[in-house]
Amino acid sequence: MHNTLMTWKDTVIDFVIRKGFDILGVIAILIVSALVARWLGKHIEIWLAKKKVELPIRTLIVRVVKLLVFVLAGVVALEKLGVAIAPMITGIGVAGAGIALAMQGVLSNLVAGLQIIFVKRFRVGEFIEIVGETGTVANVELFSTVLTLADGSQVVIPNKKIIGEILHNYGTTRQLKLSVGVAYDSDMNLVSSTIREVLNANSRVLKDPAPAVVISSLGDSSINFSVFAWVVLQDYGLAQQEIYQAIIERFREKRIEMPFPQHEIRLLNTPAGSTSAA
Questions:
Q1: Per-residue confidence (pLDDT) for residue 66, from 0 to 100
Q2: Residues facing residue 148 across a β-bridge
Q3: What are the backbone dihedrals phi and psi of residue 89, each rounded to the nearest 5 degrees, phi first?
Q4: Once rounded to an integer, what is the mean pLDDT over residues 242-270?
Q5: Which SS3 state, helix, strand or coil, does residue 127 take?
């Protein structure tokens, strides 16, 4: 055992003596490559941002550039140590084929991610509905897409699940669909103009597309109006609350009745002479 350790020790010492300067050169190459990759990635990121390239594409390009710098540095470092590169590349190619077969799911997500990034079916910040999920696109990565839901939680969807699915892209605005019921004896013109006043007074409601107020149905105890208004994504919940509250207040000011459901019950064939209990 002692002889084995001494042999290994002598081998290591001999290697360090013979390759000492080469090892220092390799360390220097790796350090310089790391600095170059960081500097190059930073400046490419700034340049792409000025060109208004979307964040997912910028991230992909920066990562690829950094990876190429490190690969080139690795090749130079191995040559510095006297390692034969050609057989290694052949071995990597054979191993890569096996890895590709074992990672078909991961690669399909990668291919789908590249397609999403470059085809631009949707962008970060847009509101979409796909594969049964509805939310704002928080991030588009190479392997998955992240949606932020209304409750603040996030859903991570593998990119291969997105490609080929029916996509509903709302963009950066959403349509409010509100319902308001008034009594049958109400002045329809007054009701419509009052609702429009509320919509015009709300700063969250977009002027283009213009809001719409229409009679949608005749209920059992009310005439029902449908109110359509468009708002930016972040104002969706607050705008709905503010509009409903303002409509109630304005209706009370103008004495427009908002009836509650009522049922009229008639008793037929009541026996003659029957009396109510005291």
A1: 84
A2: 136, 154
A3: -65, -40
A4: 85
A5: strand
pLDDT given for residue 43 in this prediction = 86
AA letter at 44: I
Scanning the chain, the segments in alpha helix (DSSP H) are 2-50, 55-80, 85-102, 104-119, 159-162, 188-201, 236-253
H or E stretch at 133: strand 133-140
- Indicate whether 277 pLDDT > 50: no
Phi, psi angle pair for 51, to nearest 5°: -80, 0
Greatest distance between any 2 Cα atoms in the chain: 125
d(CA 66, CA 50): 20
Q: Which amino acid is at 144?
A: S
- Structural domains in the chain plus CATH codes: 7-102 (1.10.287), 121-171 (2.30.30.60), 173-253 (3.30.70.100)
Pick from 153, 148, 144: nearest CA to 127? 148
Structure tokens at 21: 């300067």
Residue 224 in this model has a pLDDT that exceeds 80: yes
β-strand pairing of 133-140 with 144-148? antiparallel
